[in-house]
Fold this sequence. Notes:
Order of helices and strands: HHHHHHHHHHHHHHHH
Number of helices: 16
Radius of gyration: 20 Å
Distance between the termini: 64 Å
Largest sheet: none
Shape: globular
Structural class: mainly alpha
Oligomer: single chain
Amino acid sequence: MPRLSGGPACTALLATFTVVMIGTTLPTPMYSLYADELGFSGAVSTVVFAVYAVGVLAALLGLGRWSDSLGRRPMLLAGIGCSLVSAVVFLTAGPVPQLLVGRFLSGVSAGIFAGTATAAVIEAAPPRWRDRASFLATGANTGGLGLGPLLAGIAVQYLPAPLHLSFAVHAGLLVLVAGLVLAVPETVDVQPGARPQLQRLGVPVEVRPTFISATIAGFAGFAVLGLFTAVSPRIVSEVIGNPNHALAGFVAFLVLGSSTAAQVGLRSVPRALALDGGCVALAVGTLLVTVALHTASLGVLLAGTVIAGVGQGTSFSSGLSAIGSLVPAGRRAEVTSTFFVVCYVAISVPVVGVGLAAQALGLVTAGTIFTVAVAALALVALGTLVRLQREAVPTG
C-alpha cells in the first residue's frame, strides 16, 4: 500500500526523476575509454551516443500516452526497469553492439520519464507547490542530465573501476527509487479495459509560423546539447590538451546546468524577450566555442558553454510555452510531441555528422563547421521570431 502523500510523495517522484535521468548521461566521460578498450573510432562513439535519441523517440511516440491509460506508477516502474537493465548492460559491456543496446534502453527510460514523470510530479504536488511543480520537474529532468557526466567524470578520474563503478552505484539507486515509486499513490483514475494508444504527430495550420521559428531554435539548442554530451570530452582532451575526465564531465555538466538554471530562474521574463534573447545567447555561445577550438582556450570554452547553455534553456522553454499557448488543449500533446521529435533528431543526427567529419577533416574543422551552422540557425530563428512579433503588433 502507498505510504507517501503530498510533499513527501512529490519529493520522492522528483528524486526518482533525477536518478533515472542521471543514468542517461553517465557514459559521457567514458566514451574515450571505451574507444581505447574496444578499438573503435570517435565516429563510432557518436553513433553509440546517438542511439540514445532513437530510444527516446521510440518511447515518446510508442509509449508516450500509455500512462494515461495504464497509470503513472506502472510506466514509471517500466522506465526504471529499462534504466536498470541499461546499467547492467554497461556493467558487463564488451562489444559495440552491447553498448548500442545499453544506450537504446537508456533512451527508452528517458522517453518514458519525460512525459510520465512530469505529469506525475504535477499531479502529486500539494496545493502550495502547484504553481512551481512544472519547474521542479524541469529541474529534476535537466538537473539529472547534468549531474550524470559530472559524477561519472569524478568517478572515472579518481575512483577505481572507471568503467563499472558509476553503473553499479546507479543500479543500486534505481532499486531504491523503485521502492519510492511503489510507496507513492497512483494519480490517474485507471479505467478497466482502457487500452494505450500511440502518440500522433501534427501541427495545426494556425500555429505553424510560431512552431517553425521555435523549432529552428530548439533544433539548434538540442544540437548543442548533443555536441557537449557526445564530443566535449574529445574537445577537452584533444584540442584543449587536458585529458582529465573530471574536467570533461564538468564541461558537459556546465551546459546542462546552465540550461536548467535558465529555464527555472528566467521563467518570469516575458516570453518574446526570452525567445529572442535565448537565440542571441545560443549564437554567441556557440561562436565562442568556435574561438575556443582555434585558440585552445579553456576559459573561452567554459564561457561559451555557459552562454550556449543559457541560450538553449531559455529558447527551449519559452519556445515550448509559446507553442503551447496557441494550441487547442485537445491537440497540445500531439504538437508538443512533434516539437520533441525534432529536438531529439537534432541531438543525434548532427552529432554523428560531426563524428564522421572529424574523422575526415579533423576535430577542429568539424567543430567549426558545426558551431557556425548552429549559430546561423539560431540567428535564422531570431529573424523569423522578430518578423512574427512585428506582424502581431497592431498598426494604425
